[in-house]
């Protein structure tokens, strides 16, 4: 199932694509993938803990606020999977998907077996990032539990401002930088907002941190008009931003999902294929390069055009 089809126009536009979330639901749970992805997170963290998790001591209060925000939200939206019982500052958390439970005392890190942000990151499929509020009202990144990043890592971004973090993104500063920065600065408690980001990739891996890709870009030569439906994936990031009322930090959650293009097109193939092709054709070349799509753009477009024309010959096995 594709949770979001992010293309709502035939023309590529870098927009904030931010909406006051009809999302009081901050976390998404996909029961078929949850356990596997959390096991993957554990393995990734075990491989190089400090690369994937960093939370300096002065961010502990932010992490506790993130716990106080997310646990009730998860229990409310997914009572079939999670249960929260509170006795003042003592909270009991039951995670039925992992078959685990914990007593925690809000604000007391010794009550948890792991640092609070690490513990929380192991309850959700999302990556979790914390931004602080600086003296000028800016929101530098100060902590993160980041196992499924698309081409970046904490070491590269920690301590940097919102705009500096986005430096490598072509046209970002001109098109959306200032308004996105202001959106972060003006977030109000109890008014989370969110957006969906997307890319197309040939890697089925969630973890695309520089340490694992070693600077390699997506493959190109082996993609052709016949196999693109199965070998290319729509990579979606459902992102939410919440103001943490006491520390004034921001909790940034990213839920990443990968769907083979054939699956994306399964519903209403000709119209969706036409739309994705139109977006790719209007995307500025530097952005296509940044996202790595330039390497396989030609066969991808050939595949999409054939799908748009309802061409059975290039439909590929996945759609049969
Ligand atoms: C309204 C808010 C935001 C907007 C409009 C936005 C937009 C974007 C865009 C357009 C990209 C390029 C990749 C893509 O097209 O998906 C990107 C990449 C990225 N964003 Fe954001 N973003 C927002 C919030 C944030 C926040 C809060 C963070 C905090 C850490 C963040 C961190 C990043 C990083 C690390 C990258 C990858 C940069 C790189 O390649 O080095 N973004 N963002």
What features would you describe in this structure?
By secondary structure, the chain is an alpha+beta fold. The chain has one domain (18-319). The chain is 35% helix and 20% strand. It has 13 helices and ten strands. Strands 1-8-9-10-6-7-2 form a seven-stranded antiparallel beta sheet. It has a three-stranded antiparallel beta sheet with strand order 3-4-5, covered by helices on one side. α11 packs antiparallel against α13. It starts with 17 loop residues before the first strand and ends in a 12-residue tail after the last helix. The relative contact order is 0.16. It binds protoporphyrin IX containing FE. The site of protoporphyrin IX containing FE (HEM) has 21 residues, from α7 and β8. InterPro entries: HODM_asu-like. It comes from uncultured Thermomicrobiales bacterium. This is DUF3445 domain-containing protein.
Entry summary:
By secondary structure, the chain is α+β, with helices and mostly antiparallel strands. 35% of the residues lie in helices and 20% in strands. The chain has one domain (18-319).
